[in-house]
Amino acid sequence: MPAEALEPDSDLLSLPCTWMRGGTSKAAFFHAKDLPADPAARDALVLAAMGHAEPRQIDGIGGGHPLTTKVAIVSPSDDPRADVDYLFGQVVATESRIDYAPTCGNILSAVGPFALDEGLVQAQQGQSVVRIRMVNTDSHCDAVVQTPGARVRYGGDTAISGVPGRAAPVELRFSGFLGSSCGALLPTGEARERIDGIEVTCIDNGMPVVLMRAADLGVSGDETPAELDADAALKARIESVRLQAGQRMGLGDVSAKVVPKVTLVSAPRQGGTFNTRTFIPRKCHDAIGVLGAVSVASACVVPGTVMQGLSDIATGPAEPLHDLSVEHPTGEFTVRLLMDATGHAIAGAALLRTARPLFRGQVLVPQFQNRQETP
């Protein structure tokens, strides 16, 4: 195993790590070659590095919040359609486990820059395209990274909601995402159905999502994440629907999974296409996940979904592309849906994120990392 003790008699292991912001999330990036090949041994080491069995992650580098408790494992790909493989892990700290069921679009935006900086892909003059295979969903994305002088440029003029300042854009181009986790864009075969008396749309265009109108749950959709998190009765209703939807979507028992996500939708407030509040899955997101936003936006161009009446896009004329502004608690971002020649079927999607490394170095891990107790 590449992780090495600091000294011959040290009980701390030194593991190469890069901490990166991708979009509105942060993750520990590891080379697959630096981790054990055995999945159980790998997860034990990563959990020890991140901190686990304690919600604050006080004895690790995790941030004690779902958006800052993520892991990316990157390696050269043997897929002819990809340059690198990206395995995403959502650390569930209090349960001492890593959930590999979903992928993460925000962290995906940092994979291209990481691969270029680390020499996994040769940077080109001007801009570089990094072809990424998302191992979790066996799907693909092309990340377009700014590389003047054949070096990654992190400074720029692109602003994204939820991140201070401006930075260089990373364009994420998606294709072949329909049904990446569930096998179909509409996994249940229905654009709209009822669960617990509530109309829902179950959709998967990169991320399995259950859509419900906020008003149908007795909320406006303007509430802050903290206000929604404090509403225990609301969260219980949402979780009941989510568990049943997971079964209908072919995901099985999702009680211990972070998918499907749930998004409450309402009319736009700030001139966007629609307004959202997303649960990931039991805590309200401060924004909205990248791939979740793509799935929610996709429901706008599918007739008969719960989005009808909230956006005129759903009933508008066929067009080659749709730019949809997704409002969320801390701002908005735009999803571009690319349509096929008929203008009725989704052919792909693209959006802009920013990313940068926060530190590169060694994370120190106790050699007794398999302990489960909390002091």
Quickly describe the structure.
The chain is of the alpha+beta class and 375 residues long. It has helices spanning 39-50, 105-117, 225-229, 232-248, 290-298; strands spanning 4-5, 12-22, 25-31, 70-76, 84-92, 97-99, 126-134, 139-147, 170-175, 193-195, 198-204, 208-213, 261-266, 274-279, 321-328, 331-339, 346-353, 355-366. The chain starts with a strand and ends in a 9-residue tail after the last strand.
Structure description:
The chain is 15% helix and 34% strand. Mean pLDDT is 92; it is low at 369-375. A hairpin with a 4-residue loop joins strand 5 and strand 6 (97-99). It folds into two domains: 4-125 and 357-366, Diaminopimelate Epimerase, Chain A, domain 1, CATH 3.10.310; 193-353, Diaminopimelate Epimerase, Chain A, domain 1 (Roll). It has an 18-stranded mixed β-sheet that branches. The chain has helices at 39-50, 105-117, 225-229, 232-248, 290-298; strands spanning 4-5, 12-22, 25-31, 70-76, 84-92, 97-99, 126-134, 139-147, 170-175, 193-195, 198-204, 208-213, 261-266, 274-279, 321-328, 331-339, 346-353, 355-366. The protein has 375 residues and is of the alpha+beta class.
List the topology elements.
Elements: E1 4-5, E2 12-22, E3 25-31, H1 39-50, E4 70-76, E5 84-92, E6 97-99, H2 105-117, E7 126-134, E8 139-147, E9 170-175, E10 193-195, E11 198-204, E12 208-213, H3 225-229, H4 232-248, E13 261-266, E14 274-279, H5 290-298, E15 321-328, E16 331-339, E17 346-353, E18 355-366
Parallel strand pairs: 3-4, 5-7, 12-13, 14-15
Antiparallel strand pairs: 1-2, 2-3, 2-18, 4-5, 5-6, 7-8, 8-9, 9-17, 10-11, 11-12, 13-14, 15-16, 16-17
